Amino acid sequence: MINNIVLQRLKEREKELNTLYNLEELLSVDDLENDRLFRELITLMPHGWQYSTICEIKVTFEGKEWHSEDFRETDWIQKADIVVDNNVSGEITVTYLQLIREFNGSQFLPEEQKLLNTISDRVGNYLFQQRLRNSFKALGAGNGSANSNEEVLSQTDSDQHWKWRLKMAEHICRKMDMAKFGVKAIYLIGSTKNATAGPASDLDLMIHHQSGIHQLENLKSWIEGWSLCLAEENFQRTGYQSEGLIDLHLITDSDIEARTSFAVMIGSVTDGARLLR
Fold first, then answer.
1. Nearest of 55, 76, 78 to residue 67 by alpha carbon
2. What are phi and psi of 57, to 5 degrees?
3. How far apart are CA 82 and CA 75, in angstroms?
4. CA proximity to 205, closest of 180, 175, 232, 235
5. 34: closest CA among 85, 96, 82?
6. CA 159 to chain centre
């Protein structure tokens, strides 16, 4: 006999599969307008989550926003980027409106993040294919020449690199035990802060600390661990290899008072450091 736990897991998988089936049915229609696509998406998505009745959805895409009626950001939130032609063009956000039950510090099941990632990937691919078709139409009826006034699909620059680095910098800040390491503030500088990072760019963090010797060594080791992990992730994404992705800059009260080195960027009008925490 199947016990209740196994049965519940099977029911959750069934809900996820049904949601993906409904998504594929929606995306089988060519040339959906964005308004219809995203409105139907926020209607079908909650049915795939464990607590459907308190699940709310928001979609942002190219400066516009669609959301379910009761959407608001809460402590229980998960997100996934919508990537079109290697550019982060939007984001899907899922929230729970109240706490029902947490497991390992989260209300969301691991499978639900995978489901969200799959949905955002399929939506991004659909939009890319849609634009690709429109680009071919813009070439005309086989005349081999494009109208210069038509929208061009292909873009050589991608903003995916700096946005991914920024999200990881913010994640590292949330995870850091600042009291343990003697950290007073964390700043972002460099290409990620300036939204110009490429596939081979470092993630530049500037940390204001008052650490003792052992605290400082532990802080450097902790950051190095993140740096190595992010370097491997970047390699999987881009093929660029490095010995570490984080370029760490340490400053003290004395550096700030004397406005030496990187400390001069704090409060600077031009190319100032961005306070993360």
1. 55
2. -125, 140
3. 22
4. 175
5. 82
6. 12
List the structure tokens of 114: 């995978």
Q: What is the pLDDT of residues 194-223, one digit of tens each?
A: 888 888 888 999 899 988 889 899 999 999
CA distance 90 to 95: 17
Residue 48: other Cβ atoms inside 10 A: 25
- DSSP assignment of the chain: ---HHHHHHHHHHHHHHHHHHHHHHHHTSTT--HHHHHHHHHHHGGGGSTTGGGEEEEEEETTEEEE-TT----SSEEEEEEEETTEEEEEEEEEESS-S--BTTBSS-HHHHHHHHHHHHHHHHHHHHHHHHHHHHHT-SS-S---TTSPP---S--SHHHHHHHHHHHHHHHH--HHHHTEEEEEEEHHHHTT---TT--EEEEEEE---HHHHHHHHHHHHHHHHHHHHHHHHHH----S-SEEEEEE-HHHHHHT-GGGGGTT-SSSPPEE--
- Residues 80-133 have pLDDT tens digits of 888 887 778 889 999 999 998 887 778 888 888 888 888 988 998 899 888 877
205 phi, psi to nearest 5 deg: -115, 135
> For the chain, how far is it from start to end, CA to CA, in angstroms?
52
CB 23 within 8 A of CB 40: no
Residue pair 131/85 in contact (Cβ under 8 Å)? The answer is yes
Whether residue 148 is predicted with pLDDT greater than 50 in this model: the reply is no
